[in-house]
Amino acid sequence: MIASRFRLPAALVLLFVATCLAAQNAPAPQKRFITEKDLFDFIWVADPQISPDGSRVAFVRVNVNEKKLGYDTSIWVVPTRGGEPQRLTTGPHDSSPRWSPDGSKLVFDRAAEKDGKPQPAQLALLSLSGGESLMLTTLPKGAAGPAWSPDGKTIAFLSDTTPEDIAKEKEKKKDENEHESDVRIVTLAIYRDNDEGYIDEKHHSHIWTLPVPTSEEVAKPKQLTSGIFDEGEPKWSPDGSRIYFVSTRLVEPYYQLPISVLYSIPAGGGAISEAVRIDGYIDDFAISRSGSAMILDGVKISVARCT
Predict the structure, then answer these.
(1) Domain's final residue, options 195, 223, 251
(2) Which of 94, 145, 261, 263 is most buried by a 10 A CB count?
(3) How many domains does one find in the chain?
C-alpha cells in the first residue's frame, strides 16, 4: 500500500531511464594539447610581498588584455590565512608593490597610456585605509624599484632620467614635431639588446630618493648617483643611514671574467664606498640587522665593516 502511494508515472520512469543511459553513453570530454592561443586565457600571480605583520600578501595580477596586444597588471591583496583576494588598483599597468614599514601604505609602479602605448612607469602611493592613489614622481624617463627607508619617511628608487631631460621638459624647448636624427655612432662591441633595440648610452639607471609626503603635496626627488654606469635596485641599511646597491663599473665587462661589487652611499648623498666584491654575479642580496654581514644569493658573507 505504501509503495503504491509513491509510484511514479510510467512516462517519468521511462524519461529517467533514458537520461541515465544517455549519460552513460555520452562521449568523454576530448583532451588536447595546449596551444599558443591558450595564452590569452592565462592569469598569473606575480611579485608577492608579505606585509610587515605577516597578515596579508600584496601581489600583481597579470592577464592578457582584451585586444590581445599585451598584458594588464593590477595590485591585489589577500590574507595569509586564506580568503577572498581584494583588488586595490584598477591598472592597467600597476606593478612592484612595496609595503611601508608600518604596513599602512603601498608604493608601486604605475604606467599611464598615451595613444594606446604605456609611458614610463612612475611611483604611486596608496593608503590601505582608503582613498585614491597619489602620484609621487613625474620624471621624464620614469621611476622603478622603490624601497622604503626603515623609518618609513623616505623612498629610494631607480630612474634613467638625466638633468638634461628635466631641463628639456621644463623649458619645453623641443618641438614635438621636430625630427630626431637616427644616426648613431657605435663605440662598444655590444650595442644592441634583444627586443629593446639600440642600447642607450646617454641614460643610465641611477639611485634617487624622495621624502614620503604627509599630505597631497609631493616633494622634489633627489638624485644620489650619476655617471656612465648603471646601479641595481637599492636597499637600505638597518639604521637607514646608507643605501646599498650592486653595480658593475666596467665600460665593457664582457671582456673580463664576471665580478660583482656591492656598493653603498650615504642616504643623504655623498661618496660611494665598496662593501663587498666577489667573483661571479650577485642576483640578489640582503643585509643583516647588525649591518656586519651580507646574504648574497643565499650565501652569507661576513665583512669586518659594511661602510
Answers:
(1) 223
(2) 94
(3) 2
